[in-house]
Design a protein that fits this description.
The protein is an alpha/beta fold. Among the domains are: 7-102 and 172-337, P-loop containing nucleotide triphosphate hydrolases (Rossmann fold); 457-529, no CATH class; 617-699, no CATH class. 31% of the residues lie in helices and 21% in strands. It contains 24 helices and 24 strands. The strands form four sheets. The protein has an eight-stranded mixed beta sheet with strand order 6-7-8-3-9-10-12-11, with helices on both faces. Strands 18-19-20-15-21-22-24-23 form an eight-stranded mixed beta sheet, with helices on both faces. Strands 2-1-4-5 form a four-stranded antiparallel beta sheet, covered by helices on one side. A hairpin with a 2-residue loop joins strand 4 and strand 5. It starts with 6 loop residues before the first strand and ends with a helix. Belongs to the ABC transporter superfamily.
Length: 700
């Protein structure tokens, strides 16, 4: 007899009030969460992942919910608010995506964990509550929990705050934990720490975990089963290995094909992209809800007229006893098509070899320090934040330099200095061979014709009150290049260049999806025909399918226009796919740089090795067997950097020399350089003897 599922959703339908008629977000969904299992729920934004589970728990505002949500046999949708309050936190808990917004900013961390304990255990003494709270903080890997318990959310890093959220979620050992995108906003190193905590929690308790995410690499390493949602309906569900190796729905196959991987691929390869956008209202699409975007849809035919039922999908790696189901009329044909090919390069894009001999922009020994007053007004102490410290890099025509590192490493500050949004404290920025500090006012105004910036958030970087034509015309008008005849033609040409039609010019930015808005942002940056684009996390806020389209677009534009890119990112898989060279930043310094192939296959700096080790790989066999290096702690404060090597406080190879001597960059065999006393990869001939001499001098 099979155990009763912890959560059973039956005919769950969720709708919201619309202008004329209700908008259906989840449609007649049936889904079980098994006892003690980790169920990953994946899909694009708007697929209904979060809406499904928040609605089942009575946490979705403004929603009309019908059907059943049975938690250990109790129908949550029929429960009163008082009954739900008793269940939440005790039998079911939620780990929200944004820990900073979820934690109380005016309560100490320890008090918030204690509150989660006492709300369901009124018989515990104050000492018992404190002991339990510290035990929970220790369990989720919070160092020095006695000290951290007295601190407030803003004093903790993002990874620390997320671990506090996990401590609160497990305080009462619930039967079900819903983790809603718990690692989306985190660096890969902190993401690895949080996933490790969740994995240990799952191993040490009998809780079931619903892991809502769009990161299929994370899913490959942690999930027992995968449920793929599209348009508020279940597209496919099965054991993780079945879904990854024998995808039986075109949408699942498309998502997997969209992914760049940190262990394979590289510049010159194109990613598959799923054209179109998910439907806003499921009921507006007849037949299969995915058919307007499906490469296998047969039109006219059942795809456009009949909703496909969930059918058994038998695959070569079908896990014993775990049903693999797919909602596709042609599920048995998907395995033959799951190796989805990437789109061909547009015919108007020239296949020319990039020129890497002409340096367009460079930073030479730039530093950026920020003064900060610490403490109370009466006892204020002036300290210096060393955000960037003696960084040198350059971008040549037609090449992409990837700049990677954790949040707070100084990447965006470097990007701002290159486009004159911040002035260096010391060092030089040279544009086309001329020092930026010597530019006249007229030359500074004309800097936009040479260098342009593409922002991370396509939603907040476009003026919502302007049409797309006005947004694109603005750079031309500000630089005296607009005329009534050529201007609209330039707008239309640039829109076509980024894959948008001419009709888009008359619409406002709010009428477009996230990927389309980012294309508009790129079009705006291209209006003045710059030589360099500085792209600050341009795809981090996008779904995997949309991200693939933007990355293909950037590759096409570079080959067509010869523009150089500084590509700032924390996603090392994306960086491998798009970059020629990579510079790795840690605590304001570049610790390693080199060509993509050498740096990804033979990293020399321990930090680079740890970063690459932390990136999840969307392959269950590889992800679950490979060794991982999980860095402990966070970056030191930029107001008080460690002596010697700044990475030594988190480095497993650190020795006395690392605390006393700051490592100088040395050449690495295979190209590039590394700033480490004990690099992993061999250094160039002559560098070994100089390092030995420094050690002998240090130790007498």
């Amino acid at each position: 007899m099979e155990p009763t599922p912890t959560l059973r959703l039956r005919n769950l339908t969720v709708s919201f009030a619309g202008q004329d008629t209700p908008v259906t977000a989840v449609d007649d969904l049936n889904l079980d969460v098994g006892a003690g299992e980790v169920l990953a729920v994946v899909g694009e934004s708007g697929s209904g992942k979060t809406t499904t589970f928040l609605s089942a728990l009575g946490l979705q505002r403004g929603a009309r919910v019908t059907g059943q949500a049975l938690l250990n046999g109790h129908n949550l949708l029929a429960a009163s608010e008082a009954e739900l309050s008793k269940l939440r936190g005790r039998d079911v808990s939620v780990i929200f995506q944004d820990a900073l917004a979820s934690l109380n900013p005016v309560m100490a961390i320890g008090a918030q964990v204690a509150e989660a304990v006492t709300v369901h255990h009124h018989d515990l003494s104050r000492a018992q509550v404190r002991a339990k709270s510290l035990e929970l903080l220790r369990l989720v890997g919070i160092p020095a929990p006695e000290e951290r318990a007295t601190q407030y959310p803003h004093q903790l890093s993002g990874g620390m705050r997320q671990r506090v959220m996990i401590a609160i979620a497990i305080a009462n050992e619930p039967r079900l934990i819903v983790a809603d995108e718990p690692t989306t906003a985190l660096d890969v190193t902190i993401q690895a720490q949080v996933i490790d905590v969740l994995r240990r929690i799952h191993e040490n308790t009998d809780s079931s975990i619903v892991f809502i995410t769009h990161d299929l690499g994370v899913v490959a390493g942690i999930a027992d089963r995968v449920a793929v949602l599209y348009g508020g309906k279940l597209a496919e569900i099965g054991a993780t290995e079945d879904v990854f190796y024998n995808a039986s729905h075109p949408y699942t196959a498309g998502l997997l094909a969209c992914l760049p991987r940190v262990d394979t691929g590289g510049r010159g390869t194109r990613l598959h992209q799923i054209d179109g956008n998910p439907p806003r209202d499921i009921t507006s699409v007849s037949g299969c809800v995915f058919h307007p975007r499906c490469p296998m849809a047969q039109l006219p035919g059942p795809c456009s007229t009949v909703r496909p039922p969930m059918i058994n999908a038998v695959g070569e790696k079908n896990a014993v006893g775990t049903p693999h189901m797919s909602a596709c009329h042609f599920a048995d044909e998907v395995p033959q098509h799951r190796e989805v090919s990437a789109p061909e390069r547009p015919a108007n894009v020239a296949e020319t070899q990039p020129r890497h001999d002409e340096v367009l922009i460079e930073a030479v020994g730039v530093s950026k320090h920020f003064p900060l007053h610490k403490g109370s007004l009466r006892r204020s102490k002036k300290v210096t934040i060393r955000a960037v410290d003696n960084v040198s890099l350059q971008v040549a025509r037609g090449e992409t330099l990837g700049l990677v590192g954790e949040s707070g490493s100084g990447k965006t500050t470097v990007a701002h200095m290159l486009v004159n949004l911040a002035n260096p404290t010391s060092g030089d920025v040279n544009v086309a061979g001329k020092n930026l500090s010597t530019f006249s006012r007229k030359e500074l105004r004309g800097l936009a014709t040479r260098v342009q910036f593409v922002f991370q958030d396509p939603f907040s970087s476009l003026n919502p009150q302007m049409t797309v034509e006005q947004i694109l015309a603005e750079p031309l008008k500000l630089n005296g290049r607009w005329n009534r005849t050529a201007g609209p033609e330039k707008v239309a040409t640039t829109l076509n260049l980024v894959g948008l039609d001419q009709q888009a010019a008359a619409r406002h930015a709010s009428a477009f999806s996230g990927g389309q808005r980012q294309r508009i942002g790129i079009a705006r940056a291209l209006m003045l025909e710059p030589q360099v684009l500085v792209l600050d996390e341009p795809v981090s806020a996008l779904d995997v399918s949309v991200r693939a389209g933007i990355m293909n677009l950037l590759a096409d534009l570079q080959e067509n226009l010869g523009v150089g890119y500084l590509f700032v990112a924390h996603d090392l898989a994306v960086v491998r796919h798009i970059s020629d060279r990579v510079a790795v930043m840690y605590h304001g310094k570049i610790v390693e740089e080199g060509g993509v192939e050498r740096l990804y296959t033979a990293p020399a700096h321990p930090y680079t090795i740890a970063l690459l080790s932390s990136v999840p790989i969307p392959d269950p066999d590889i992800e679950r067997k490979r060794e991982r290096i999980i860095l402990s702690g966070d970056q030191p404060s930029p107001a008080d950097p460690p002596s010697g090597c700044r990475f030594r406080t988190r480095c497993w190879k650190a020795q006395d020399m690392c605390a006393e001597v700051e490592p100088a960059p040395v050449a690495v065999v295979g190209g590039g350089s590394v700033s480490c006393h004990f690099p992993e990869s061999p250094v160039a001939e002559g560098e070994v003897s100089s390092r030995t001499a420094r050690m002998e001098q240090l130790h007498g």
